[in-house]
Amino acid sequence: MPKMRKWIDVIESRRQVMLGMSGLAMAAGDNQPYAQNTQPRWRGFNLQEKFTDTPREWLAVAPEWGRRNERFQELDFAWIAKWGFNYVRLPMSYRCWTRPENPYELNEATLKEIDQAVLWGKRYGIHVCLNFHRAPGYCINQAYLNEPWDLWTDDRALDIFARQWASFSARYKGISSKVLSFNLLNEPNKCTQDQYARVVRAAVLTIRAKDPDRLIAIDGMFGEACLPVLQLVGISNSIQCTRGYAPFSLTHYQAPWAGRPQVLPRWPMPINETQVWDNSQLQRWCIEPFSSVPELKSRTFVGEWGCWNQTPHKVTLAWMENMLTLWKAVDWGWALWCFRGSFGILDSARKDVRYEYWKGHRLDREMLELLRAF
């Protein structure tokens, strides 16, 4: 622990020099504990510039997701704000700011690019959520990656994970949770709830050591809805994050990384001869597991949702309207996966959309206006 403390202090010193007069520091008393009913309902998008550090991770299965550790784009923030949204989630790979041979050393140039995204969020009135989509020893897309550790069982992986979050915590200390939150780990899977809770608590401990009030978003266990982990509900100033991918056979129709579901989707969508995916089924599957826990009624957020571009557009919009109606009724915010790309409102490459040509992009105006209505 003394070595950890010394390391955190070094990071804090560097942060103070870097941030300087950035204008991001909060006013006294500004970092109050989170409650959805006391803040604007967050509605926005996932931005994927740092989703991967190299295209080879996804080249064989879905080249679209093979990013190059790119810079975030200010125009994305400007357009998101222009259209009335107020949230972005940044699903990132830890490999973007570390090297495999030394995962304890963070690349300052890459971190400054993340700083810039936080600054743009402040400038345009958009909350920024930092997420480890690929963490040391774990990623939901593990089949396409080559991690040298297992986050659930390897103490070295857990140490790297906790230290990296400690670094981000020290770096952004003093920035209001109205501006910035941390989503610790994307979609835990192939572990027990106890194993996942151990990882979360280790990260929370290091974050709280430097920034006691940082808002922390905790994903539920992976699935179409990412169900809550009840033993983590009591963590101070935290929210639980769910998903909007139910039914998976509709949202990921023909997606190669999801096993290529084969049944052409429609909405409502039959499950078998006697059951059907419809509004009531979504209510039972996606809403009730959270709304039945008193502490989560106003502390739940949909961190990802959407339909891949092979699902028919009319089906996609009908399903989206159903989901949006349910979430608005319980006052949950959401972040569409994604902004630009096959799930998004810009350049989705759907073949059954009449696009509007907008500032060099193909805009799905019908989807945009549906989102704006909720």
Tags for this model:
single chain, 374 residues, alpha/beta, TIM Barrel, eight-stranded parallel beta barrel, two-stranded antiparallel sheet, disordered N terminus
Report on the structure:
Helix 1 (2-19) runs parallel beside helix 4 (155-171). Helix content is 32%, strand content 16%. The strands form three sheets. It has an eight-stranded parallel β-barrel. The chain has nine helices and 13 strands. The protein has 374 residues and is α/β, with parallel strands linked by helices. Strand 10, helix 8 and strand 11 (333-336) form a beta-alpha-beta unit. The protein has helices at 2-19, 74-82, 108-124, 155-171, 193-210, 248-251, 279-291, 313-329, 365-372; strands at residues 43-46, 87-93, 127-135, 138-139, 180-183, 215-219, 238-244, 269-270, 276-277, 300-305, 333-336, 356-358, 361-363. The chain has one domain (2-13, 32-372): Alpha-Beta Barrel (TIM Barrel), CATH 3.20.20. Residues 1-23 have low confidence and may be disordered. The longest helix is centred in the first third of the chain and has 18 residues, at 2-19.
Short structural summary:
By secondary structure, the chain is of the alpha/beta class. It is built from nine helices and 13 strands. The protein has an eight-stranded parallel barrel. The chain has a two-stranded antiparallel sheet with strand order 8-9.
CATH C-level: Alpha Beta
Low-confidence stretches: 1-23
Oligomer: single chain
State the CATH superfamily name.
Glycosidases
Tally of DSSP β-strands: 13
Task: Sum up the overall morphology in one term.
Answer: globular
Tell me roughly what share of residues is in helical segments. Answer: 25-40%
Largest sheet: 8 strands, parallel, barrel
Tally of separate domains: 1
> Per CATH, which architecture?
Alpha-Beta Barrel
Q: Please give the radius of gyration in angstroms.
A: 20 Å
Give the N-to-C terminal Cα separation: 47 Å
Percent of residues in beta strands:
15-25%
What number is the mean pLDDT? 90
Q: How do the strands of the widest beta sheet line up side by side?
A: 1-2-3-5-6-7-10-11
Spell out the helices and strands N to C: HEHEHEEHEHEEHEEHEHEEEH
Structural class: alpha/beta
Question: What's the total helix number?
Answer: 9
CATH fold group: TIM Barrel
